[in-house]
Amino acid sequence: MKKIISFALFDTGETILSALIYSVFFPLYITKYIDPKIYSWVYGFTFLVSFLFALQIGKYADRTGRRKEFFIIFATLTALLCFSLGFLTDNPMLSLFVFSLMSISHQQSFVFYNSMLLNFDTKGLASGLGVSFGYVGSAIALVFFAKMFSIPDVYFIAAFVFLVLALPSMVFLKNPSMYQKVNLKAVFKDKKFILTIISILSLTEVANTLIAMMSVYLKNVFGFDDVEIYKIIGISAIGGILGGVFWGFLSDRFSVDKVFPIGFFLWVVFLVLLSVIPKELVLLAGFFAGFSLGHLWTVSRVYILSNFPKEEISTRMSFLSLTERLASTTGLFVWGLFLLTTSDNYKLSALLMSVFPITGFLIFIYAKKVT
């Protein structure tokens, strides 16, 4: 249990860092000095650089079996770069550069963190508890910390909390020592793997769009005020906390191969529900959204671990990390396109988003047939 808690604590620190720095303080700071579109392009570019870098460093880690070593290096580097931002508030361009480096390092640490799941026999429970702890961390950060801190202090505090919560994983988790030379061309030609990644992308498209636009949807469709919206988002977080443990347990109990496809149906049901539910039952939809998110974040990484070569896991986890970031861009673009073509009909646009999980499920079924 000590190892599982250690694993979950990193998820807590990671979400606190993300909620405070990536979602709130740095965007608000940097957009005072540069156009938000430029910031979005730079931030998006870091994801591409991170993916290309992760392929190469993941390939090396898989060849040598030195996964924990890279996890420690990049987690520590992330904390140091975050800490250094506190000294650069008078230089926005240098801050943006250091922030970009921190984003790349952060993504690398998360790739190798996911690889550490190889340590566990009950991978579902470890993954699910990590997701649940992550939701707790996010709630603590946004409800208690965000209103207490300001720049530059928030950089120092977030860096310290992130590093402290990463230490148990650094100390107590063993290095997954299996190794194998990885051929990147062969990975890209692995049709079953690429199709599986695309099917997961279809779910992250919906999930990330939901996270980004839910408050806007609730205000425009139901007329909720800010306090009511916070309440619904809070209920969603409770759904995520319970969902992480629940889906993790089911993955271990009945096998992840049986539990993973349920996600496609969860998101179709949610989107249909969102388009027809009366105002009085929106809290139920909020809980169901969090419960569905708990499934996605818990089960997808365990599914990759269980169905593809464990000796290549760092390289293949790079693709999973890319889906989570790529969806932040493409999902919002498609959502905007749906609103444009439906003349701002939010309910119909939500229903149209179900094309993603339906298409993803068909791709997943086809991938299962690929030998």
Outline the structure in words.
This protein is mostly helical and 371 residues long. It folds into two domains: 2-172, MFS general substrate transporter like domains (Growth Hormone, Chain: A), CATH 1.20.1250.20; 184-369, MFS general substrate transporter like domains (Growth Hormone, Chain: A), CATH 1.20.1250. 82% of the residues lie in helices and 0% in strands. It has 15 helices and no strands. α5 (123-145) crosses α12 (282-307). The longest helix has 32 residues, at 191-222. The two termini are 37 Å apart. The model has no long low-confidence stretch (mean pLDDT 87).
Summarize the structure.
The chain is mainly α. The protein is built from 15 helices and no strands.
* Tally of helical segments: 15
Contiguous low-pLDDT stretches (5 residues minimum) are none
Return Rg in Å.
20 Å
Mean pLDDT: 87
SS-based class: mainly alpha
CATH architecture classification name of the largest domain: Up-down Bundle
Question: Could you name the CATH homologous superfamily of the largest domain?
Answer: MFS general substrate transporter like domains
| Main beta-sheet strand count, sense and barrel state | none
Helix content: over 70%
Keywords:
371 residues, Growth Hormone, Chain: A, 15 helices, mainly alpha, 2 domains
List the helices and strands and how they pair.
Blueprint: H1 2-30, H2 36-64, H3 67-85, H4 92-115, H5 123-145, H6 153-172, H7 184-188, H8 191-222, H9 226-254, H10 256-259, H11 262-276, H12 282-307, H13 313-341, H14 346-352, H15 355-369
Helix pairs in contact: 1-4, 1-5, 1-6, 2-4, 2-13, 3-4, 3-6, 4-13, 5-9, 5-12, 8-12, 8-13, 8-15, 9-12, 11-12, 11-14, 11-15, 12-13
